[in-house]
Write a structure and sequence with these properties.
The complex is a heterodimer of chains A (about 90) and B (about 375). With about 90 residues, chain A is an alpha+beta fold. Chain A has one domain: SH3 type barrels (Roll). Chain A has one helix and five strands, in the order E-E-E-E-E-H. In chain A, strands 3-2-1-4-5 form a five-stranded antiparallel β-sheet. The longest helix of chain A has 24 residues, at about 60-85. Chain A is elongated, with a radius of gyration of 18 Å. Chain B starts with 12 loop residues before the first helix and ends in an 11-residue tail after the last helix. Chain B has three domains: about 5-70 and about 180-245, HypD, alpha/beta domain 1 (Rossmann fold), CATH 3.40.50.11750; about 70-175 and about 260-300, 3-Layer(aba) Sandwich (Rossmann fold), CATH 3.40.50.11740; about 320-360, no CATH class. In chain B, the strands form two sheets. In chain B, strands 4-3-5-6-11-10 form a six-stranded mixed β-sheet. A five-stranded parallel β-sheet of chain B has the order 2-1-7-8-9. Chain B is built from 17 helices and eleven strands. In chain B, helix 13 (about 225-240) links the parallel strand 8 and strand 9. Classes of the chains: A alpha+beta (about 90), B alpha/beta (about 375).
Chain lengths: ~90, ~375
């Protein structure tokens, strides 16, 4: 998580422990942060949250993240195949 | 951040190339100039940093609109914060905000003149600091969009310490998008909407605006592939002549949004008319403290003036035109001459979400308008 804080920048991270209103969140690449306020969301251990200025503002849907990508992969792969066969 | 499994694949170069081809084909089928506006500084960063514009066809442009909270914070509010700091109060704010000038000074400059100005990462830090130093008077200069406002609302409802007051300057994006969509001068063809602001409000907050303007609206994430997919979605809608509200950022944005955050925000703030620096006064675009929390309102407590007729920007600077998306930064006569990231003259060169700062950091010196 960069030290520079900008207003709309938010980072996804995985909740690795919860203590009341606060959680420890793993942002990947060896960066974890304690004291993230999770009162604005209903989150469980192991879920991804979107963190903005010290507060989790959303529980992220991991399946949806992969669904969007595989949907586009599929239609673009089909398109490429079509292009190649029609050449 | 790329090691997080939730983002795996959102920087896949092969998929990017295929999307590029699809975007080019769609643009040929459309055969006219298309201007897509986004309204978020983080989108501008992704687009510039990853060179997304260089992948776009000649007749398709993605332009930055009013998506930088620091940039649109009125000079009068910065002046008020500076006066409070120089008058013996401890002013707390975010890093970017401290360096943006009002009509005369920035909070950082007030600090060099002896004012007590401290940078915080979150409103919770402000609460902790005020609790630990009960003999001092603290003012939290609360700026941002609806992405940031719920956290402050939460702390306000949790009864903050009595030595902490709030100078709020929150702005609400859906009303700004509506104002921009009505502009005959900008002629926006479609919108890429801010993924994090709309994570809070949900897509539903843009329904009135969409019903009125009938322009394609795609709610987008912040990885380079998110933006390319969003452009492809916009162009598909235009080609099919089927404008709709479409969600690309399904891992975070929903139709309803974060209802818990909305309810928290609604308990503390009312939507009122708000001034966007250099842009316009826009109805229902400011999140102001509700009357029952006036005891926490720094404006009430210190009898601060609500408006000032002070100059908005330095002479010849075209910050306002950059904020609204009327010009690209290099079209301002001061860009990278008198005004640089090391010596910024306007807020768009200060904030990491300001278009000038982002372009300057990436050494872009020529405009990138549609080339046809």
């Amino acid at each position: 998580m960069p030290a520079k804080v900008s207003m709309c920048l938010a980072f996804p991270g995985k909740v690795i422990s919860i203590d009341g209103d606060f959680a420890k969140v793993d942002f990947g690449e060896g960066t974890a942060r304690e004291g993230i306020n999770v009162s604005l969301v209903d989150v469980n251990l192991g879920q991804y949250v979107l963190v903005h200025a010290g507060y989790a503002i959303q529980v992220m849907d991991e399946d949806e993240a992969q669904k969007t990508l595989s949907y586009w992969r599929e239609i673009l792969a089909y398109e490429q195949e079509f292009e190649q066969t029609s050449r | 951040m790329s090691s997080l499994s939730i983002l795996d694949g959102y920087r896949d170069a092969e998929l990017a190339k295929r999307l590029e081809r699809r975007i080019h084909r769609l643009s040929q089928e459309i055969g006219r100039k298309i201007m897509i506006m986004h309204v978020c500084g983080s989108h501008e960063w992704t687009i510039t940093h990853h060179g997304v514009r260089s992948l776009l066809p000649e007749n398709v442009e993605v332009r930055a609109g009013p998506g930088c909270p620091v940039c649109v914070t009125p000079a009068a509010d910065i002046d008020a914060a500076v006066d409070l700091a120089l008058g013996g109060r401890t002013v707390l704010t975010y890093g970017d905000m401290s360096r943006a000038r009002g009509s005369k000074q920035s909070l950082a400059e007030a600090k060099t003149l002896g004012g007590d100005v401290r940078i915080v990462y979150s409103v919770h830090d402000a609460v902790k600091m005020a609790k630990s130093l009960p003999e001092k008077d603290f003012v939290f200069f609360a700026v941002g969009f609806e992405t940031t406002a719920p956290a402050t609302a939460y702390e306000i409802l949790e009864e903050p310490p009595s030595n902490l007051r709030f100078l709020t300057s929150y702005r609400y994006v859906p009303s700004a998008v509506q104002a921009v969509s009505r502009s005959p001068e900008l002629r926006v063809d479609a919108f890429i909407n801010a993924g994090h602001a709309s994570t809070i409000t949900g897509m539903k907050a843009y329904k009135t605006c969409f019903d009125e303007c009938r322009k394609p609206m795609v709610f987008s994430g912040f990885e380079p592939l998110d933006v390319l997919i969003s452009v492809a979605m916009v162009l598909t809608q235009i080609r099919n002549n089927e404008p709709k509200m479409e969600n690309e950022y399904t891992r975070s944005v929903t139709w309803e949004g974060n209802v818990k955050a909305q309810q928290t925000m609604e308990k503390a703030f009312d939507l009122r008319e708000g001034y966007w620096r250099g842009v316009a006064t826009i109805p229902n675009s400011a999140l102001d403290l509700k009357p029952e929390f006036s005891y926490l309102d720094a404006r009430e407590h210190y009898s601060l003036a609500h408006k000032s007729a002070s100059a908005e920007f330095v002479k010849d600077a075209r910050c306002a035109d950059v904020i609204i998306g009327k010009i690209d930064p290099p079209e301002c006569p001061l860009y990278m001459k008198e005004c640089t990231p090391l010596g910024p003259l306007g807020p768009t060169m200060v904030s990491s979400e300001g278009t000038c700062k982002i372009w300057a950091d990436h050494k872009i010196v020529s405009a990138m308008r549609c080339r046809v």
